[in-house]
Amino acid sequence: MRKRHRVRRITATGTADYQDVFEVTISERRSPEQWARAVFQDAPPPVRWFLLLGWRALLGLRLRRPLSSAHHILGWQVAASDGATIRLALSSPLMNAQLLFRVSDDALTLTTDIAYLDRAGWLIWALVAPVHRRMIPYLLTRAAAGRCRPCPGRTVLVEKEGGAGQDGPVV
Question: Residue 69 gets which letter from DSSP?
Fold first, then answer.
């Protein structure tokens, strides 16, 4: 029998125009970088291409080359890393985007922060955000459930969402 995943919304606080936080329980100990690579680079090829197309063509994010290296995870630049977190960052003329992976003893948390650089960024994100809010839980659940090469486990998913950017830009 397939395990059901529980999702609930909790208000998150942050200074970004848009912020959401997804948390999934994990049973395997991995570094934040290993989890970030499992989430994005170990996704099925059609999903990876869908992500790359959306990031590049729709959001205009400037993906880094090579897509995978010590300093890049599926085109995202590794901006900072320590034993408990890794921060990935990209920018475009429309927005600055950051993904923060945080690992605790039994949970992996992914926070997305978006700062709009103009109203067009807000408009495009408003169209993309519903897909983002479905894709991230899928990717986290897949990685934590062991449906990727290196990461076994089972999951309970919690969504924490907040930030004024969900309904529009901060005025």
Answer: B
Distance of CA 33 to the CA centre of its chain: 13
- Helix axes 119-144 and 32-40, enclosed angle (nearest 10): 100
Specify the pTM. Answer: 0.80
Q: Which tokens is 79 given?
A: 């901006």
108's CB contacts (< 8 A; 6+ apart) are: 23, 24, 26, 35, 101, 102, 140, 143, 144
pLDDT tens digits, residue range 141-153?
999 987 555 433 3
Among 36, 126, 120, residue whose Cα is nearest residue 84: 36
Q: Rounded CA gap, 90 and 95, in Å?
A: 9
Using CA atoms, how far apart are residues 60 and 34, in angstroms rounded to an integer? 26
d(CA 2, CA 23): 19
CB 108 within 8 A of CB 35: yes
> The sheet that has 95-103: what strands, in order across it?
72-73, 76-81, 85-91, 95-103, 107-116, 18-25, 157-162
Q: Comparing C-alpha atoms, which of 72, 73, 156, 60 is closest to residue 117?
A: 60
The one-letter code for the residue type at 137 is P
